[in-house]
Amino acid sequence: MPRLKAITTGSIPSFLDVVLNLDEGDESSSLASQDTWLAQMKAKGTGKLVMYGDDTWLKLFPGTFDRAEGTTSFFVSDFTEVDNNVTRHVAGELKNDDWNTMILHYLGLDHIGHKGGPRSPHMLAKQREMDGIIRQVYTAMESESHLRSTLFVVCGDHGMNDAGNHGASSAGETSPALVFIAPKLRALGRKLQSPVPEDESFQYYGTVEQSDLAPTLAALLGFPVPKNNLGALISDFLPFWPNTRDQVQLLMRNARQIKEIVLATFGPQIFETDPRVDGLSEPNPDYQELAHTWRDLAERYGQADAELIPSINKWLHHAQEVLGSMASNYDMSRLFLGQAAAVASLVAAVIAAVRSANDRAASFMPLSGVVLAYGIMMFASSYVEEEHHFWYWATTAWFAYLGVRGFNRGNTSARLQTISCTALILATRIIRGWNQTGQKFAGGPDIVKTYLNTNPALLWYLVSATYLWVHQNMVYGLSGLPIWLNYTIATGLVLAAFTFKVAFTLEDAPELVASFARYALRLNFTQDASLIARARAVFIGLALVTAVTTLFMFARRRVSLGQSGSSTLLTLYTLLSLTQSRPQNIPLYLLFNAQYLVLSSPPLSGALSPAELSTTSLLLQHAAFFALGGTNSIASVDLSSAYNGVASFDVAAVGVLTFVGNWAGSVWWALATYVMLLQRREAAAGGGRGGGGVVGTWRAHVGVLTLFVAGSVVAVMAACTALRTHLFVWTVFSPKYLYCVAWSLGQHLVVNVLVGGVFYWLGVVEGGK
Question: A Gene Ontology biological process annotation (predicted)?
Fold first, then answer.
């Protein structure tokens, strides 16, 4: 949506457009009332407007198109139907002579990039398919008389980075291709080399701004430049007008339109004084330079000499740069008020954490170090982009500290603690290398790309092992039921989830599915079931078993003969998180479980104070988020599982599924921590020490986590305020603020506080104390 705004209006979208872009149902950002080249073409009345492809066009321009068929762009697993729905209209429309504008917005390349990156095995075949479409259109332009004067523009609305994402500031993401095609363009005599050597910066024949498309179309097709345009006419087309006076008039028309925006932005007074005689000794601001240069152009205009053309071009690009780089008009009083509220919340969080945790002061030192280091890091764009390194190293350092502390105590239990911490560090190292995330090394070698994507059999052996582990845990967790019912429920639910994942991957990336995994679909006797039906079967099954487990806990009965109901609920959530995770990430839960077993078993289960256990949970929640492929870029929001079981867009269902899909590992560790807290409570009660207050234990844990959340909010808000004029404020710091909101409201308030609180309370009720 934001890039389509730039292409059609010539203006620069706001950051709010990026946020609204995530809501597929949003219609508040319609461009129906704005001046665009689409509106100008419709006003010409020389033909109809038709559109096929991404339905974002229909939402941005309601009532504009005379013939259209939209396709949702958010089902990123579809590589073929989204394009076939466009292509089936092409041949017929090329025969029609009643239209003056036809938009074909293909989605397959975008979807392949999101799913497999620019080097996906699907990419070459799809590019050749697009070559065929371009050839088909151009052949019609040469052979059909009504298309002889047609201009064919092929462009991308965005690019992608090496990981297949877009939305940040890397060269690959901000360098989409643009090609103008028409038989008449041969008159320009541009003999360009093709192919050309690969350039990592994507600077090939020439570079223009995306907004330059609007005034260029206006000149070539003969309509006024959209009034909010910040683009400059692409000067390569000026030779179409052999008369120098015509070229000057075209450029001045573009310049006058942008001058109106300069006046509206800075006020008319900047053109009323002469900065050359204002007595200022320091260099004039950019806008004064614009005024000065404009006066010079106005004085020379009328001469229509060739030397005026580069001067106008220079003014256009300078104005474009000044207006395009301007920050928003910030309400500083509100920013400072929000900052003050955040600081107040931090002070309250510190007091609450100290009073509720009832722990020794030394237990808070590591947490304080994490908060301080994290806060400092938020003021550097590179650290924000590569935040995952902070959590990986902080988690490793924490486990190393615990191991050294145990070793120094010298007794057998302490030495076992050192061995346990060593195992935790090794598991963390493997987790760290699973997915290469961040900005600078996105798409680099990692375990997934090097070993799993190239060896589907190994991938599905690990995936199968994970589901077998879940099956074993579920059988154990439902052992209080009759054995026939226990195995029927556990086997049926796990098999449904596993075959859904196989069927989903077979549609999404068939090259990743091993032959024995395909065989599982035939064994399950559900070959003809749709993905929606499969996903709904899993969700309904999980909901029913969760309800039964919860009822048993309310009745103070154990649904398992050997473990608590909370452990069974954790197993059920694990199956949900596997359903919402990419198949390559599923084996990570084996590593998470290994770390959980070490942390919940002696000697570590008794070596950590309450504050230290909460600190461990904090570190593991964040490390898991990045290990599963998360970053601080909006581009990395994984929508691949957001539509599991959803037949049409529903903001609530898709929102929840999107959150679970992206924070699956973090939610798992949040719930696993509460299981460990319940185990500690039960052990304390069994040892005659008392289990501690129900509310007090929950409040102490939440207090420690809230301390970090409040500190992180203060740091991120302060960084965004202090760096509001920074070059990367919209591509790095503002997205980080959105992630901060998601962490604070979604992961902390909803998961850690509300869901975790109910989870812990159910465990206490089950224990009957």
Answer: GPI anchor biosynthetic process
